[in-house]
Specification:
heterodimer; A: about 350 residues; alpha+beta; 60s Ribosomal Protein L30, Chain: A; Phosphoribosyl-aminoimidazole Synthetase, Chain A, domain 2; 2 domains; seven-stranded mixed sheet; five-stranded mixed sheet; 14 strands; globular; B: about 800 residues; alpha/beta; Alpha-Beta Plaits; DHBP synthase; Nucleotidyltransferase, domain 5; 4 domains; twelve-stranded mixed sheet; nine-stranded mixed sheet; 24 helices; about 35% helix; binds fe (iii) ion; binds magnesium ion; binds zinc ion; zinc-finger (chain B)
């Protein structure tokens, strides 16, 4: 069992170990449990469990997020660890309504790591940052003894200016909200797993890693106040992101399983491996909870952005079964969609 | 109704010289079974004065008369009680000071019911009795062909009760005011309908309605009602239609069991490709046309619970449509239990498929609107009525193994009758059960009340049925649990439900301990025993999956002394749905215990049957531990064996592979053919005896290659598991001097295995118990959890 698979165990590691140990240091002043934005006073306004924090600096609200990237293999179909480190942090800033301004970057390099690989990865970082229009403004690198790290780890921190229209939090979903998904799921996780374990699917599948800040900005531009929640469902997949939102907002979420796009080769791989695509990681899609009145406008805005061309409405928020996510299956039954616990463990007796 | 409204019609006796007065508090299933009229008749016969009344869930009698007649009352009360009553306890108190007042009542009457807190029992639904059936088919009777005829000895109970005490206003019969004729019967202590709460007739009771599926408007507009509705339904079924019938504990889908096309259409509409369908036949004679029915089986078929009984087929193979029970020589038959079923069987005069009205995986539908929207696809029409179903009770399923009846699915007719606990629950307790075939149990004092079968909790509607059912039963029984027993599996919805309780009120119970404890507890075994738990998968206390376990146990604790070798499940639940994967798991990744060697050539020849890419991926998944959890499961070994024998590579319902394997071995005949054993080995590994299945599977593969008949190999496989289990029990007995064996877990639904194993263990001097009143499958887990948690609280 690992705490790294992004489901209930990672959540409990953060909730039970890290947050209590930090104590008041996670909210030095003025935290609003609903994640409401104050816009002044220099305090964090968001829960440490959100994708990013919003800091009111008086004049502007600043969005900050940090993430460490440990992926094996370092290079995979559709990307590499460098791209992931740039996109992942940009996306976390964007999910809280931040317009990313710059990134800080830290390498931890195991002694003996091939220089050629380091060059490739650094070049990839540069290219991803340029393409996203978010410069790397500061950085650091440390070399550690052989065995103290596995090749290369990257930590990135992103800083952004909160877009004026953004009022986003995982706790703001309301009954009636439409659930919108920007594109196909499960591509990244299947690609990485296949490449790492030599399962032979990587010829047909590729990671979806991509920056989502322009897409997010377009959505907020279309109907800022109507977008209640945005999340990029990374580790633990769409299922875990939806469960976190359902719990934080104390609402039920119902999705239409057949409406959730899964590329055919990805679906085939999941079927072969016995994986539920809803539990597989993504790096280039987002899910948004939007006031039903503006859902079509937001969906149109999504589809006009390259990262949201295949955006679809996948479900809605209900007052029933608060804290729980269900999926309507092809035959119309409503199955409970759990957060991933460790691995996908059989429950059949 | 007040006490005074019942005028005593008989002359009261005069006060004898040696008069006395006593109060009798009668506990048990004494409401809704004609108990009060019975007491009235008995007391009058004994010349007693006084009254009887329902109080909460029990009955209070206060009587005055001679000490002899009072003694006689106490003695005869339990002995001569109505067939469906269960008198658990009679507490007698002296009331000499009130003797004169009681005696002054001159006569014996029924007093008004009083609400009471405290534990209450109420009876399951009862099949229509002979007398009511005679009326049903008597053209001269005012209830001729009236589908809701009932009396104190029969009719709906648990399905219609909204609140206790059990009185008409607290049932779904409340909206039907009695007509004068019915009221007279209801109030006459000499009538068999005296206080029959659901009493009804065509003039005052519920009415049948008929509607076609095209009539999607939800209004109560129907095209026919009453006997015309019934006639329409009969016509539709006779011409190959499928009718959704509002039954006793839920909607049922009914069609002609002899029409292959209709049965195929039903399967498609229900999304149920292969799981056998239950067939209702008119009587035991009709059952004997289709199946072998022993005396014990006939008794089970005709019992008031009227379960579906799994029987060995016999006679003309084409008497039923081929799609009823594909590949099996077993058929589930049951007899009509409501007047409506009797009328349908009578008018149609042929076997009928009568199956739960639900879509596969969902709970049986009880709501009229839901029935319209969810069954509209499969049903051509609806035969409904205007009495609400308050509580959901699916049909029960039972079978006879080695002369003993065992319930496989416990619902209508059985639940919510209490199941005794050998160690009483010191505090009211909720046991939340497992995940599939879900039931929960409420325990207080000496009993657990196990809920009716609910289904697969991963379905939202099933989960709601669980929470609704819990609220209803907890209110009716007046049991407010203060602690909760639950499984260890973190992903069970039931475990997650229990996790919301405060930690110090939670009692975790290991899955297989609950299984074997359910068996021990129902047989009152409180001493240490050898527990053999064979099932598909359950969460072990070491965080791995178990399922082929031998314990030294008592109700409070267990020690794992034996187990099956482990194998990976390549793809997790996918490997459960695809036995071919399980076979590959054993052949390419089975635990290396040292005894067995997998012959790579034989393994490759088996794998050659499957798509190359799948085999390559599976092997890679096993080697790299990709979504391939290991399990020491007996059920999964049966799956693997079925696939190796080419009997079943994919299952469409739980347990299909094992059922087909048993059928191939000739299991339902109950007369095992001695085919000998395949090679097997039990080795000692880190303090446990471990069965290495590799030599057995090699034996199967070799047999297939040599052209040994598959049915012989299937029989040999059963004999091997028997021999292995015997060996493990003998080793466990050597450790402990324990000679009682409790067998439980879904694998023990295998009649052949149980029969062989009972005989083998018996020959070695073991006392063997199997589940009878609660299912051996996960439907019995809640009761096992209650038994373990109660025993632990007694420590
Ligand atoms: Fe089990
Ligand atoms: Mg982050
Ligand atoms: Zn009757
Ligand atoms: Zn009447």
């Amino acid at each position: 069992l690992g705490h790294g698979s992004g489901g209930q165990l990672s959540a409990s590691l953060i909730r039970d170990v890290i947050v209590p140990a930090l104590g008041d240091a996670t909210k030095l002043a003025g935290t609003d449990p609903r994640g409401e934005v104050h816009g002044s006073g220099g305090a964090t306004e968001t829960s440490p469990l959100e994708d990013a924090a919003v800091l009111g600096l008086g004049v502007v609200d600043v969005v900050v997020s940090t993430d460490s990237f440990v992926v094996s293999p370092l290079f995979f179909s559709g990307g590499d660890i460098g791209k992931l480190a740039v996109h992942g942090t940009i996306n976390d800033v964007a999910m809280m309504g931040g317009d990313p301004l710059g990134l800080s970057l830290a390498f931890i390099i195991e002694e003996g790591f091939p220089l050629e690989d380091l060059r490739r990865i650094t070049a990839s970082v540069g290219e991803a940052a340029r393409e996203a229009g978010v410069p790397v403004v500061t950085g650091d690198s440390k070399v550690v003894d052989r065995g103290s790290a596995d090749g290369l780890f990257i930590t990135t921190t992103g800083i952004g200016r909160r877009l004026p229209a953004a009022r986003l939090s995982a706790a703001l979903a309301r009954p009636g909200d439409a659930v919108l998904l920007s594109g196909p799921i499960a591509q990244h996780g299947v690609t990485i797993l296949s490449a790492r374990e030599g399962l032979g699917f990587d010829g047909d599948v590729a990671s979806d890693t991509r920056p989502l800040h322009r897409l997010a900005a377009a959505m907020l531009d279309a109907a800022g106040g109507s977008v209640h929640v945005m999340r990029d469902p990374t580790r633990g997949g769409l299922a875990s992101a939806l469960n976190e939102i359902a719990q934080a907002s104390e609402v039920g979420v119902v999705i239409d399983e057949p409406a959730v796009p899964v590329p055919t080769p990805v679906a085939a791989a999941c079927e072969m491996l016995g994986l539920d695509p809803l539990h597989v990681a993504n790096e280039g899609c987002l899910v948004a909870f939007v006031d039903p009145g503006d859902a079509d406008a937001v969906l149109a805005a999504m589809r006009s952005d390259p990262a949201g061309r295949q955006a679809v409405r996948i479900g809605e928020v209900v007052a029933d079964h608060p804290g729980r996510v269900t999926a309507r299956t092809l035959i119309g039954a409503e199955r409970i969609v759990d957060m991933l616990i460790g691995e996908q463990l059989p429950r059949i007796c | 109704m007040t006490a005074d409204s019942y005028q005593d019609r008989l002359q009261g006796s005069t006060l004898p010289l040696n008069a006395a007065a006593r109060r009798l508090d009668v506990h048990g299933a004494v409401q809704g079974v004609g108990f009060r009229p019975y007491v009235v008749r008995l007391a009058r016969e004994l010349g007693l004065n006084g009254w009887v009344r329902n109080a909460g869930g029990h009955v209070i009698i206060e009587a005055a008369g001679t000490p002899e007649s009072l003694n006689a009352l106490a003695a005869r009360l339990p002995a001569e009680a109505p067939a469906q009553a269960v008198v658990r306890d009679v507490i007698v108190t002296d009331l000499d000071d009130r003797m004169a007042r009681l005696h002054g009542r001159r006569g014996f009457t029924v007093g008004a019911s009083i609400a009471r807190s405290g534990r209450r029992d109420f009876p399951p639904d009862l099949a229509a009795c002979e007398e009511c059936l005679r009326e049903l088919f008597d053209p001269a009777d005012r209830r001729y062909r009236y589908p809701f005829v009932n009396c104190t000895a029969c009719g709906p109970r648990a399905t219609i009760i909204t609140e206790l005490p059990y009185d008409r206003p607290q049932t779904t019969m409340a909206p039907f005011p009695l007509c004068a004729a019915c009221a007279a019967e209801y109030t006459d202590p000499a009538d068999r309908r005296f206080h029959a709460e659901p009493v009804a007739c065509p003039a005052c009771g519920p009415t049948l309605r008929w509607a076609t599926s095209c009539d999607t408007s939800d209004s109560n507009e129907s095209t026919a009602s009453g006997d015309d509705a019934l006639t329409a339904a009969v016509g539709t079924i006779a011409s190959g239609g499928i009718v959704a019938v509002k039954g006793l504990g839920g909607y049922q889908l009914v069609c002609d069991a002899t029409r292959t096309d209709t049965v195929a259409r039903l399967r498609a509409g229900k999304h149920r490709p292969a799981k056998p369908l239950a067939v209702m036949v008119a009587d035991v004679a009709a059952a004997r046309q289709l199946a072998r029915v022993s005396d014990v089986e006939a008794e089970l078929l005709t019992s008031v619970a009227r379960p579906i009984v799994l029987l060995a087929r016999q006679g003309d193979r084409h008497a039923l449509a081929a799609g009823i029970h594909p590949q099996l020589d077993e058929v589930g038959l049951f007899l009509p239990y409501t007047p409506l079923h009797h009328l349908l069987l009578h008018d149609l005069a042929r076997p009928l498929v009568v199956t739960s009205g639900n879509r596969s995986g969902e709970p049986i539908i009880i709501d009229d609107h839901e029935a319209r929207t969810r069954l509209g696809q499969v049903a051509d029409a609806f035969l409904t009525h205007d009495r609400r179903i308050r509580a959901r009770y699916d049909d029960s399923v039972a079978r006879v193994v080695a002369g003993t009846g065992s319930v496989v699915r416990r619902a209508r007719g059985y639940a919510p009758a209490p199941t005794p606990l050998p160690r009483p629950a010191p505090r009211p307790l909720l046991a939340v059960g497992a995940q599939l075939k879900h039931t929960f149990a409420l325990a207080s004092a000496d009993d657990a009340i196990v809920s009716p079968h609910i289904g697969d909790l991963s379905n939202q509607d099933t989960f709601t049925a669980f929470t609704d059912g819990l609220a209803h039963l907890s209110t009716l029984l007046s049991i407010r649990p203060t602690c909760v027993a639950h499984d260890l599996h973190p992903a069970y919805i039931s475990t997650q439900y229990a996790a919301r309780w405060p930690r110090n009120r939670r009692l975790p119970v290991q899955h297989h301990h609950a299984h074997v404890a359910s068996c021990a507890a129902e047989h009152g075994v409180t001493e240490p025993f050898i527990g053999v738990a064979y099932d598909g998968l359950g969460w072990g206390d070491d965080g791995t999956l178990w399922g082929g376990e031998v314990f030294l146990a008592d109700l409070t604790a267990y020690r794992r002394v034996g187990r099956f070798g482990t194998a990976p499940l390549p793809g997790g639940e996918l490997a459960v749905r695809r036995p071919a994967r399980m076979a590959m798991g054993y052949l390419f990744g089975g635990e290396r215990i040292g005894a067995g060697m997998v012959d790579p050539e034989l393994a490759a020849s088996f794998a050659g049957r499957f798509d190359e890419q799948e085999v390559a991926t599976v092997r890679r998944m096993i080697d790299r531990h990709v979504n391939s959890p290991y399990a020491s499961s007996a059920g999964r070994l049966f799956d693997a064996a079925a696939s190796i024998l080419g009997l079943c590579d994919d299952v469409s319902y739980e347990g299909e592979a094992a059922i087909v394997l048993e059928a191939t071995a000739g299991g339902s005949g109950g007369r095992p053919v001695d085919t000998g054993e395949l090679p097997w080995k039990v080795v000692s590994s880190s303090g446990m005896w471990v069965y290495d299945p590799a030599p057995t599977l090699m034996g199967l593969l070799r047999g297939v290659t040599d052209g040994t008949p598959v049915h012989r190999l299937a029989a040999s496989f059963h004999a091997t598991v028997t021999a292995v289990t015997l060996a493990l029990c003998i080793r466990a007995a050597q450790l402990s001097k324990v000679s009682t064996v409790c067998l439980s877990g879904g694998v023990f639904q295998n009649r052949r295995l149980v029969t062989e194993l009972r005989a083998a263990l018996g020959d070695e001097g073991f006392t063997v118990y199997v589940n009878e009143t609660v299912p051996a499958n996960d439907g019995g887990i809640s009761y096992g959890q209650a038994a373990v948690a109660s025993a632990r609280m007694n420590l």
